[in-house]
Specification:
Layout: H1 2-20, E1 25-28, E2 36-37, E3 43-44, H2 46-58, E4 64-66, H3 69-78, E5 82-88, E6 98-113, H4 123-127, E7 132-135, H5 139-146, E8 152-155, H6 158-167, E9 172-175, H7 177-187, E10 194-209, H8 215-231, H9 233-241
Parallel strand pairs: 1-4, 1-5, 7-8, 7-9
Antiparallel strand pairs: 2-3, 5-10, 6-9, 6-10
């Protein structure tokens, strides 16, 4: 009997080792200066550089794979070994994942077409618009839904929102400055065709880990990022991409 118990114990121990060392996936979306392909076809950007520096410090060489946001976000919710960046921290999302960061900060802004006559001076004004272009499963879209907005026109690609705004199919678009410029470029439309109408809020973005991700690995990544803040590496990388930006403040999300 003891022999079988020993065998069973060893089997469980081996399985635990296998699962604790199970490979994980690192996903990101392509957007703005935080995550993009340069002219040579190399994945780069502020957040990519930060994540790769963390990987170097913890001894990880997992490849970063770009995916459309909605698909990557769904995988983060449905699978146990997923890392996704950059993800906006909201109260709704806080208990859903594990968080390391922040690695980026951005404004949420309503944009309108110049000369359209659309004015937004409050969130109530925005609720009265016929249509607002949003990005599918994006934190900004989810935030507006949480406030009871029923006039949202969701798109799987932010550049589609720009095209709709340019021809008047939506009255406004909610985005962030860096994302908006990148989306205009992708759509082939001059960013000067539009203007900021209303600042919604300022938000911080993080590296997110699946709810059941190995907490030991998450702690290693958190400690590596902390050391980057402390030794000046984070500031060096961040200000290289955003010279006049306000630096995010390191914090631990419980």
């Amino acid at each position: 009997m003891k022999k079988y118990l020993l065998i069973g114990f060893l089997t469980l121990a081996m399985l635990a080792m296998v699962f604790s060392n199970a490979p994980f996936k690192i996903y990101t979306e392509l957007i703005g200066r935080s995550q993009f392909y340069d002219e040579e076809g190399t994945l780069t950007g502020s957040s990519v550089e930060i994540v790769r520096e963390i990987q170097k410090r913890v001894g990880d060489d997992t490849e970063i794979e770009p995916l459309p946001w909605s698909r990557a976000y769904n995988l983060l919710q449905s699978e146990d070994n997923i890392i996704l960046f950059s993800t906006t921290l909201t109260e709704e999302r806080r208990p859903m994942f594990q968080w390391v960061g922040p690695i980026f900060s951005q404004a949420w802004v309503f944009y309108v077409k110049k000369g359209s006559g659309v004015e937004i001076n409050s969130m109530e004004d925005a609720k009265k618009l016929e249509k607002i272009g949003t990005y599918l499963n994006d934190a900004r879209e989810l935030y507006l839904k949480s406030l009871g907005f029923e006039n949202l026109d969701s798109a799987v690609d932010e550049s589609n929102n720009i095209k709709k705004l340019d021809v008047g199919r939506v009255d406004a678009v909610i985005s962030s400055p860096d994302n908006f410029v990148a989306s205009c470029k992708k759509a082939g439309i001059e960013v000067n065709n539009f203007e900021e109408a209303y600042l919604v809020s300022e938000q911080e973005l993080y590296i997110t880990f699946s709810k059941n991700f190995d907490k030991t690995i998450v702690a290693e990544w958190q400690e590596a990022l902390k050391s980057m803040y402390e030794d000046g590496t984070f500031e060096e990388i961040y200000l290289k991409w955003y010279p006049n930006a306000r630096l995010p403040t390191y914090k631990v999300v419980e």
